Amino acid sequence: MEKKQSLKKIAKFFGYLNKQNTTSKINEQTSTVFDDESMDELGDIISKYVEDPDDVQRELDLFDDGGFDNMSDMVTANLDRDPEYKAWYNKLHSIKGDEIEISLEDLDFETLKKSFPKKYKKEKFTRPQTGEPYYEDAVSFPNLDDSRMEIGDSSALEDWKSKTSRRFGNVTIILKPNAKNWFDEVFIDDEAFNQTRDQLMRGKMSAMKRDQELGRSIDESFRKKQLQIRAGIIK
Fold this sequence. Notes:
Layout: H1 16-19, H2 36-46, H3 53-66, H4 73-79, H5 83-93, E1 100-103, H6 109-115, E2 123-126, E3 133-135, E4 140-142, E5 148-150, H7 154-168, E6 172-175, E7 186-189, H8 191-213, H9 218-231
Antiparallel strand pairs: 1-6, 2-3, 4-5, 6-7
């Protein structure tokens, strides 16, 4: 695809500012320079809906001249619900405190990686089953038992999604690429999920307190539970 050489600061025309599905408020006067690389990335996203390379370039020209709303209705309708496009937009603006809201069904691994541009740079190993790399600098998703699951590749993400959707359906996920703490980078915006998680956490704390009142250490209680599991008494 031929790169467009003359790019403008067109954020104020960028119709997606009023349509984006994020939790942060973004100043419509924010200026963003769309360089050749970012326009090529946009072209790759558009090519999912437009086959002819010349038509893709035509859409990019329309975008360069007048922003999101200046493109064809077919393309804007598809981009408006495309998570990869939303991640592309958020990455370019790099707005502090920006949060990306996306449904569980729409979230895939490529979108997750693009939502966290500072992560997923260090490959830890290659998963034999899929041949894809597993990243050690990955984000983690919350589990119900107050633990977290590291999402180092697409298999890990699909596993977490499957377990979550079976119980809670198509939950809303908030991605926070600029969060101060690693454990705040992903939040599940679902009342049932968080109520269940809180109940399990309270039960866990009550059990620990009860063990302490009975004079048992946490290590002793843990070892006892492991022995019961091995003996088949509990699961």
